[in-house]
Prior knowledge:
Helix content is 41%, strand content 14%. Helix 1 runs parallel beside helix 5, helix 8 packs across helix 9 and helix 10 packs across helix 12. The radius of gyration is 24 Å and the shape is elongated.
Amino acid sequence: MQKPTPVSPSVGGPLRTVSRLVVIVLFEDVDLLDVTGPPEVFSLARRETDEAAGYDVVLAAETMDPVTTGAGVRVLPDLTFDELSERSIDTLIVPGAVEVDGQRGVHPRIDPAVVDRVGQLAERTRRVTSVCVGAHILAAAGLLDGKRATTHWSTAQQLAADHPAVEVDADPIFIREGDVWTGAGISACLDLSLALIADDLGEAVALRVARQLVMYLKRPSGQSQFSVPLEQVSVTRRIEDLRHHIMRNIADPLTVAALAAHAHVSDRQLTRIFKTELGTTPHAYIESARVEVARHQLESTDATLERVASACGFRTVDTLVRAFRRRLDTTPTEYRRRFRTVPAFTPDGDPRG
């Protein structure tokens, strides 16, 4: 990638206009918001700085034919990849596209021709970014090797498995590694665009843009609070029996000794079985299972935190809160506020909204 040219907003005076070519890669079945979200954010930056931001956002594709997005909406490119061959690019944005299987599993779509084009464009680009599963395209182009990166939580395990040289972190909304930025879920294209503006023009400008979008400048917590944990695949009947036993008895103490006795193995052997087959310890697995049960209760019931903690085996609300902070980087109260699917009720039956 090109070395960045330092550009700083003037202190105590107006921003000077700097031309910044932002290229968004288009291809068939691309996620629509990945494509349309960033231009909206950058256009607000121009408005909030009286055009001083200097962002010139274009959509580039293999040909000038309309591109049909995953939402079925057709989008017209501004220019072709070949027309960019002699131009320097400030920011390259690589969106994603997905396929959904019969079990509603989400898989990234990776076109080798698009991967090749992204690799070529990156050589003339100051900074490269991906949105959602676009990280899989960057990884396939070798642009994430040796770097920490994120993607949508539903494909993070696949990204890590397909590209061992990439350090995948499924929780952050976006990650910056030098001049390479990766974003999480589809709406994270807005968070990522705000972060790019803050990097270029300062947080004061980015904050003004965020207010226009009715968004946080920095979204609280990560995407783990939105994710559905992926089931680890175990290979023995014994570990499957243990997992079912844990869920049936989630409110019980579930000590290592008790689990070992249930499985008719020693404490040490039980720990080794969990580590080998599930990649974790019995304690960590049990805590994760309890958090999942607590999430369901917070979403679907109006039970008090004390009752939720007891029903899930946490014993105290403090223990429940600490587990939520470790696993989801949020609190049970905040989680319920965001994800409740039934109304809360006061003791006399009046809804609280």
